[in-house]
Design brief:
Layout lengths: L24 E2 L2 H10 L2 E8 L2 E8 L1 E3 L2 E7 L3 H7 L5 E15 L7 E15 L3 H15 L12 H5 L1 E7 L2 E7 L17 E4 L21 H4 L2
Antiparallel strand pairs: 1-9, 2-3, 2-6, 4-5, 5-8, 6-7, 6-10, 7-8, 7-9
């Protein structure tokens, strides 16, 4: 039975087939979504005045669409909203899951999970979609937070631009496992292995002036 559109792998394109380590590449939709949803920051690349620019920024995902927000004065957001085909971009996220320490300097590496998205970003102008996008951006960082805060007012909405990027040309790349030492190095007296890395959340720190009666939300203490 064929996969449904919601579960079918992404189609590979010339831009999503890597030149190296093709065995680490995946077009699995669930894997891509999982890597994106775990990331707090993406890097958005585009060309401005003939030169490449890469900006770190927050993002959110709703189904097969990513949303990025910023000031209405931001150059990439203005470019995406100008009349025409939109803004050609490349968006990436990366998780470092472990430091791979080999017996030789050459074979040191990292275990990672990454996603690269190519496409055309467009300004979001529909009022309801803008609100959905902004809620998604807040909930992407802390799930449940958008319903536990004051929504943006008219002045804030007027100062905020939102662009969308559809997940069409997408690939994931994953490196896992231990070092790939050469056979002749296996007997060398150097420690080799993996130093795992994982995000850790500290105890919530209340803001200055917070009413002591306001309890820490459960979605923070459960993390």
């Amino acid at each position: 039975m064929a996969d449904s559109p919601a579960t079918a792998p992404y189609a590979s394109t010339d831009r999503t087939v890597p030149a190296r380590y093709r065995d680490r590449t995946s077009y699995d939709r669930a894997l891509v979504h999982g890597i994106l949803d775990e990331a707090y920051v993406c890097h958005l690349g585009f060309v401005r005045d003939g030169a490449p620019v890469v900006l770190p920024t927050l993002f959110g995902r709703v189904g097969e669409r990513l949303y990025i927000h910023g000031s209405t004065g931001s150059r990439p957001l203005r470019a995406a909203g100008q009349a025409g085909p939109g803004l050609e971009v490349c968006l990436t996220v990366t998780h470092v899951d472990g430091l791979v320490l080999a017996r030789s300097a050459m074979h040191h590496s990292i275990n990672f999970r990454s996603v690269v998205v190519h496409g055309t970003a467009h300004e979001v102008t529909d009022p309801q979609e803008r609100l959905t996008a902004l809620d998604a951006l807040v909930d992407h960082v802390v799930p449940g937070r958008s319903s536990d805060t004051r929504p943006p007012n008219a002045k804030e909405l007027a100062a905020t631009a939102v662009i969308s990027l559809d997940l069409n040309e997408v690939s994931a790349k994953v490196r896992a496992g231990g070092p790939n030492d050469d056979a002749e190095d296996l007997g060398l007296p150097y420690w080799a292995g993996v130093l795992p890395l994982a995000p850790a959340y500290g105890a919530p720190v209340p803001a200055d002036g917070l009413d002591p009666a306001v309890a820490v939300p459960g979605y923070l203490t459960a993390r």
